[in-house]
Amino acid sequence: MTIVSKKSHTSYQTEKALGQNEQHSRSLIENSSDIIALINAEDIVTYVSPSITPILGYTPEEIIGCHTLVLVHSDDLDTVQQVLGEIRQTPVRSLRAEYRLRCKDGSWRWFEGSGTNLLHVPGIEAIVGTFRDITRWKLASHSHWSEMCEPEHFVRFYETDASLMNSVSEFIGTGLRSGDACIVIATQPHSESLEERLKCDGLEVAAARQRGQYISIDAATTLSKFMVDGSPEPGRFTKVVGSMIARATKGQRHVRIFGEMVALLWADGNRAAAIRLEELWNDLARTHSFSLFCAYPMHSFGGGVYEAEFTEICKQHARVIPAESYTLLSGPDARLRAITLLQQKANSLEVEIAQRKRAEDALLHLAAIVESSDDAIIGKNLEGIVTSWNAAAERMYGYSAEEIVGKPITLLFAPDRQDAMNLQFTQIMARIRRGERVDHYETIRLRKDGTRLTVSVTVSPIKDSTGIIIGASAIARDITEHKRLEAKFRRLFDSNLIGVFVSDFAGTFLDANDAFLDLLGYTREELLAGTMQRDALTPPEFHSLSQDALKALQETGASGTYEKEYLHKSGKRIPVLVAVARIEHTETCIGFVLDISERKELDRRKDEFISIASHELKTPVTSIKGFTQLLKRKLEKQGLQEEAAFLARMEGQVDRLTKLVNDLLDVSKIHAGQLDYAQEAIALDELIRAIVDTAQLTSSTHTITVHGASHCHILGDRDRLEQVFLNLISNAIKYSPQADSVDVYIEAAKDEVLVKVQDYGIGIPKEHESKIFDRFYRVYDENNKMFPGLGMGLYISREIVERHGGKMWVESTEGKGSTFFVSLPIILFS
Ligand code: ADP
């Protein structure tokens, strides 16, 4: 604001005019473009010139009689009062000040007012005030719109149309007055109101248009002439706009352009095209001389963060003029204050945006979690209307979010259980309203396709930002399968077909069915009292087996089946077959226990029978053999060769019988741990060769060849080892009827000797390889059924080898042959 202590030109004129000729003065005053007013000693307006109407919108009658300060902006009241006070104190003194007056339409205009104290002049007795509208100066910040005549591309942001029209009418009006060509590319309402203003300012718009000095075209229509695929096409732009400028500059006239095409593009959301068009205008300025006034309504920059685009627009212009709320400020101090406030506002907005962004990110994060959850997560309001529905809910219930959001949750209630469901729902919602959470209740729900599912649901209250409960979130897990399995298991558990227990890893039985309790002689009360402990119920020799089973359980989740014994409450041992599996995600396991007492008893009886039978058979067989030999010799002596030959064959069969009985005896002795062994040093190579020679004598079909030598001694029972290798060689011959050779290899390693017996026969199917060393195990299939035997040889052989500290195994290929390996510890090299 400026206060200048000098007599204004207008004041002098007024004073002079009033003093000389009232008529002349009146006409002078009434034709002035400034507002002239008389103010009496009481600060009441006694006269105001008719120029008030085009400038402020009031008729003189509306203002005459009003207080001087009635139209003054509240921020400027102090200034005006101070100036008026000073004027009043000093007669004939003239003072000037800048301040705002309110227009009839509510907008504000800037005035430079000067007042002269003529209160003492008879016939006048008033302060004479002249008010010049300087809004245009203020609007243009430090520029004057009428001075915008240099070729320049500038932009003005505006808040109200009235303010825009003020500047444009000044810019174009000055141009028209000074003979410049003026081109207006505006919206229809803007061109109309501009022409209105120009006419008000006394300009002959029609005549100027006639002369080609004033060109006004519609912005949208012009735009359509060069826009291609949503972007301004440079060639067409130059053609349309460039030629118009060229026509207008004829006679070297300067050209002023007011353009709103960029603003239209911006308002359409085509911001890239707006920026591109600004660039095209700048390109055009290289070949054409014009000053271009662009205008953007400030509100088009709200509602989004267009910082980059906004900066780009500013960059495209040589001069940027802020909107009127800034330019209308009275002076540098006010502007600095405004800028500071704006900076602070921008700062806090940035912080707020960042906070909002973080909150949005967090929400997105949460939304992603909800969407990816395997559990159905459903939001509902207090009336039970579904408000949100995640992907798992879609999968689980078959309804899409679009189908169910906005519908009542009762849609999921089974029709035949509606009453119970409604009651449950009401009870749950009552708890929710109280702010309580309802944990893991199980209920039946209906899918879209009518099928049912069992769900476990947790419902929690949803609160708004003020803490008021506005709904509930339900997290539901489909436990239908779980329930089905549980029911199945329960049936198995309760059937008591097999003993079932649940125990922790430490070995405390937590639950068991009656079959298990009966098996061990305990009551349910004793079980629940925690008295049933695995270790106490297991004989010590099975502890390590139990530990192995536990280890497998922890590592793989299951123990595999194993035999053990439990101790009945009475102390009796109960042989059982056990299998234990871990219960997922817990430190507990479930065990299945089969009582095998009966099978064990049968086994025992069978072993007993074999033992007795073999003993009982041995004596008669031995005496048959003895008598056969005696008889054979007698017959030979009597020359009865034919009869003796029969007896020789009989003797051969008795030998086979003897071997069988001996094997049976060995088996039962092994089982009873009663097989005795001699301990002597044996030269292995010789032993093998002797066995091979013996075997070769009985075989006319196969050639048995010994390869290699070990040159070592082993410690053991010669007869038993002979039994082992004879068995291997005779098996090799027996199971290779199509072949004619058997190879025996002897190899010595560091501290053990390896004997391999290889045949080229039928081989052993893989699945049988590990079992052929079991007692009485024979491979029964098409290939094997014609081979005689009882499945005892390998069982006895392995037992003998292991008792010698050695190992025995087989490698075989079906149809190609087998190799049996025997490794024995060396005691001495010869
Ligand atoms: P067996 O009296 O039945 O021969 P063994 O204990 O000696 O009893 O052998 C057990 C089973 O192993 C046999 O029944 C046979 O199926 C298989 N077997 C043993 N040796 C051979 C071999 N060399 N080739 C193929 N199969 C064999």
Task: Write out the distinct hetero groups bound to the structure.
Answer: adenosine-5'-diphosphate
Fraction of residues in helix: 40-55%
Overall outline: elongated
Low-pLDDT stretches = 1-19
Q: Please, what is the oligomeric state?
A: single chain
Count the DSSP helices: 29
Overall pLDDT: 87
Topology, number of strands: 31
Strand order of the largest sheet: 8-7-11-12-6-13
- The structure class reads alpha+beta
What fraction of residues sit in β-strands?
A: 15-25%
For the CA atoms, what is the radius of gyration? 58 Å
The major pleated sheet works out as: 6 strands, parallel
Query: Ends: how far apart?
Result: 128 Å
Notable characteristics:
830 residues; five-stranded antiparallel beta sheet; 31 strands; 45% helix; disordered N terminus; binds adenosine-5'-diphosphate
Polypeptide structure, described:
It contains 29 helices and 31 strands. The protein is elongated, with a radius of gyration of 58 Å. The termini are far apart. The model is unreliable at 1-19 (pLDDT under 50). Bound molecules: adenosine-5'-diphosphate (ADP). Residues 727, 731-732, 735, 759, 761-762, 764, 772, 777-779, 784, 789-795, 818 line the site of adenosine-5'-diphosphate. Adenosine-5'-diphosphate is lined by residues 727, 731-732, 735, 759, 761-762, 764, 772, 777-779, 784, 789-795, 818.
How would you summarize this macromolecular structure in one to three sentences?
Helix content is 45%, strand content 24%. The chain is α+β, with helices and mostly antiparallel strands.
